[in-house]
Amino acid sequence: MNIGIESISFFTSRYVLDLRTMAKARGVDAEKYVNGIGQEKMSVPPPGEDVITLAANAGHQALESIDTDSIEMVMFATESATDQSKAGGIYVHNLLKLKPHCRVFELKQACYSGTAGLLLARDMIHQYPDRKVLILMSDIARYGLNSAGEITQGAGAIAMVISSQPKIMTIEPESGYYTEDVMDFWRPNYRDEALVDGKYSVRVYLKALTESWNLYHQRTHIGFEQFSRFCYHLPFSRMAEKAHKHLAKINHIDLSEHELATHINDGLVYNRNIGNIYTGSLYLSLISMLENNPQDMSNHKVSLFSYGSGCVGELFAGQVLPGYRNHLSSDLHQSLLESRKELTYPEYTDFYNFAYVQDGTTQSMPTFDTGCYRLSQIKNHKRIYETL
Ligand code: HMG
Predict the structure, then answer these.
(1) 102 is catalytic
(2) 79 is catalytic
(3) Does the annotation count 311 as an active-site position?
(4) For residue range 119-170, what is the model confidence (pLDDT) as tens digits?
(5) Domain of 38: which CATH number?
(6) Does the C-beta of 382 come closer than 6 Å to ligand 1?
(7) What CA–CA distance (Å, rounded) separates 17 from 147?
(8) Catalytic residue among 79, 106, 150, 314, which?
(9) How many angstroms separate the alpha carbon of residue 341 from the centre of ligand 1?
(10) Facing residues of 73 across strands?
């Protein structure tokens, strides 16, 4: 039985900061951001946009051609949750009008948890082939103003329907994974911004990649050369170059510049222009690779490496299905990116500094473009959403 991705879409904020604008404001050479880090732009959420509205918009798009009554489970992966108790997926379940006989819950392990959801969904469908799972991965990446991590912020959500009638990619059952207790990136409950040991986090990422690959290879005997494309978790797009050179090196492969570009470049286009969307970053790269690759990828094998700080890594494989292009939302995604409003630097800091109430007084949100859904109010400590 084939199990995999039947439908996949992303949504990102309608507002964007060009990193050259940030470089000018910071007095930094823009080349550092564009070439050194590999990021051009970052999506910035306006007041009234949160992980719920981002996920609902992505979910709405991904469910366009799916019978919503077939969705038996919603997994909501995030590390920017709005509540310590209630799962964000329950708001989305309501906004998307899914049936009540549906299991909904939230997953957390930094940027990795969406992958845990995907692979668990795969196992569940193996047992119950007529059921479908909606996986939402939604995050707002937020670091301190003026910190080294600031230029790697971003905001967005991925929605995927996993079923036994995949149209885009099958997900192979075997994988290699690795866990180690490290403090490379974390966000204590009392903070809005992540803390990070940046250079160390890159080293831990590469170690988790090595360990995950070794287990994957040991279990499957599948080699580096059997993959046509490689998608990585992308905190910033140059991370893929570092990761891919590293993977080639541990496999004793002398990678040419042309091979490097072929293997990873199409998967960087969207991430370079959106930023880190944490849980969804790997899958944004997958969408980018499928939608920006001029070559027909049918029947090609793709390596997927997921990494979440703290840390967990997992490497697994997917096989692209013939006819996949007919099921992508390329035009929608391109127009979503092209129609974003560019922010000035003061507009960016205004969005960044917007304060949500924390004391139970009623706060009505100013109106910005947040797609089909918005957080309209916080009242008596309750978040109130509306469909537009
Ligand atoms: P930094 O100190 O700003 O940058 O930190 P740098 O000084 O290391 O420079 C970066 C690169 O730009 C270097 O190239 C420089 O040479 C180059 P490299 O040595 O890497 O090849 N450079 C220039 N290039 C051209 N022209 C110039 C120029 N100047 C310098 N003028 C860092 C960078 C990524 C560490 C920082 O942005 C950061 O802390 N980011 C956040 C943490 C992060 O993204 N870590 C990645 C791995 S952990 C992860 O992926 C998990 C995560 O997604 C969270 C989760 O799991 O939930 C983050």
Answers:
(1) no
(2) yes
(3) no
(4) 999 999 999 999 999 999 999 999 999 999 999 999 999 999 999 999 999 9
(5) 3.40.47.10
(6) no
(7) 16
(8) 79
(9) 26
(10) 103, 133
